[in-house]
Amino acid sequence: MHAFDVLGDPVRRRILELLAEGELSSGAVCAVIRAEFGISQPAVSQHLRVLRDNGFAVVRPAGTRRLYAVRHEALRDVDEWLERFRRFWTPPLAALATEVARGKRRRRLAAEDNEKETP
Amino acid sequence: MHAFDVLGDPVRRRILELLAEGELSSGAVCAVIRAEFGISQPAVSQHLRVLRDNGFAVVRPAGTRRLYAVRHEALRDVDEWLERFRRFWTPPLAALATEVARGKRRRRLAAEDNEKETP
DNA sequence: GCACTGTATCACTGCTCACTTATATAAGTG
DNA sequence: CACTTATATAAGTGAGCAGTGATACAGTGC
């Protein structure tokens, strides 16, 4: 499932917005979504599953609860897709900083690869 | 239709990628998409319509052709939705520049509103 | 152990939406 | 004008997916 397919659903977008504030239990997410969209608990649970399966969220058991958090890597991929359009509205300073960040990230990823190859 | 629903389709994303390079005729888009996705001309035309109707593309007649171009405003809205997540991977410099740009945009929009109210 | 709460999965269903074929509209060309 | 090319619209069909109710599973406290 492509990143944008995941974000194509309003419920999933809302869940991510909620998780952006910080870790939340399945039940907490469920409560808000039920109130706002009027859908059942299984429906919310399935959306959480989609988010998990596609790397948009991570889950951590805490007693009987399961705490969800955003995985920002997935959203960064979306952000990078926008890159090619961004130059039309991004001022040069931000573009430069983004470029610097991207270079950093590339170097980091490359370093990780080297670690794997020569452990 | 929400911006992310529009981007939820791989064909539409690809079309936007093509248009990001510059203005293209319906036929030119069609040729590429047909080759890559194997769908019919009407199918492509319908996707172009969705992009038009949702403000992701503008069209300009040129003789018998119709030239399509990206409307960046729509993509900026998507970009702004990502804003709340971006702080996790954006370096401070870029964040500052983005903030400056946003202030600019807000002032511009406000100015436009004033123009309307006192023409 | 049992009951209870919190969460996930299963099996099914209905609706949305992307596709197709056929056709309409519009502009250039002889 | 008829003919062709370029593009859009119409009508109908099929698949996918988000929803439901029922159920299973896991952890907590008695």
Automatic annotation (TrEMBL), chains A, B:
Domain HTH arsR-type: 1-90
SMART domains (alphabetical): HTH_ARSR
Keyword annotations of the record: DNA-binding, Transcription, Transcription regulation
InterPro entries for this protein: ArsR-like_HTH, HTH_ArsR_DNA-bd_dom, HTH_MetalResp_TranReg, WH-like_DNA-bd_sf, WH_DNA-bd_sf
CDD domains per record: HTH_ARSR
GO MF terms, alphabetically ordered: DNA binding; DNA-binding transcription factor activity
NCBIfam families given in the database record: HTH_metalloreg
Protein name: DNA-binding transcriptional ArsR family regulator
Protein species of origin: Phytomonospora endophytica
Source species taxonomy: Bacteria, Bacillati, Actinomycetota, Actinomycetes, Micromonosporales
